[in-house]
Amino acid sequence: MTSASEEDAKMAELTSHLPIYERATSLVESFFGNIAWLQSPIERDQIVEEQMPMFYPGHRALRPEQAHPSKAHDLALLFITFACGAAGDLTQAPMNEEGEKYLQLAKAALAVGNLMQDTSLASVQATMSIGLYKLASGRKANAEEASRIYTLACNLAMSVSFPGLFCETEF
Question: 0.85 exceeded by the pTM?
Answer without folding.
Answer: yes
